Amino acid sequence: MVVYLLLDNAEQSVLDLKEFVQTEKTLQQMTYMDSFPFPYYIVLRDIEALPRTLGDVLRQWFELMQSSRD
Predict the structure, then answer these.
(1) What is the DSSP letter of 40?
(2) pTM for the structure as a whole
(3) What is the pLDDT of residues 36-50, one digit of tens each?
(4) Which residues sit opposite 27 in a β-bridge?
(5) What angle do CA 38, 40, 56 make, to 5 degrees?
(6) Which residues have a Cβ under 8 Å from the Cβ of 43 and sit 6 or more positions away?
(7) Do the bridges between strand 41-44 and strand 4-7 make them parallel or antiparallel, or are there none, so unpaired?
(8) What is the structure's pLDDT at 53?
(9) Cβ atoms 45, 9 nearer than 8 A
(10) Rounded to an integer, what distance in angstroms lies between the CA atom of residue 13 and that of residue 35?
(11) Beta-strand (E) ranges in the chain?
């Protein structure tokens, strides 16, 4: 399992980034995270929360692996 870790800045957040997507005849504005290419990601603003966050990710991964065995 690969988890993409985004270290975010509260002043200019990746959650606020916009992009334009061209459809057949129009342009649509979307947030960048709506089309983010990785299915598993974490947006982390507080670097001090990194150890706890990584621990949570590992715990969830172990729970997924255990439930897939059953």
Answers:
(1) S
(2) 0.69
(3) 899 889 999 999 999
(4) 22
(5) 155
(6) 6, 8, 14, 15, 33
(7) parallel
(8) 94
(9) yes
(10) 16
(11) 4-7, 18-22, 27-31, 41-44
Please report, as a single letter, which amino acid is at residue 38.
F
pLDDT in tens, 10-37: 788 999 999 998 888 899 999 989 888 9
Q: Structural domain tally of the chain?
A: 1
Find the distance separating the first CA and the last CA of the chain, reported in whole Å. Answer: 19
What is the rounded CA–CA span in Å between residue 38 and residue 2?
9
Name the residue range of residue 40's domain.
Answer: 4-69
Helix, strand, coil share of the chain (percent; to 5): 45, 25, 30
CB-based burial, 48-63: b 16+ in 10 Å, e otherwise: eeeeebeeeeeeeeee
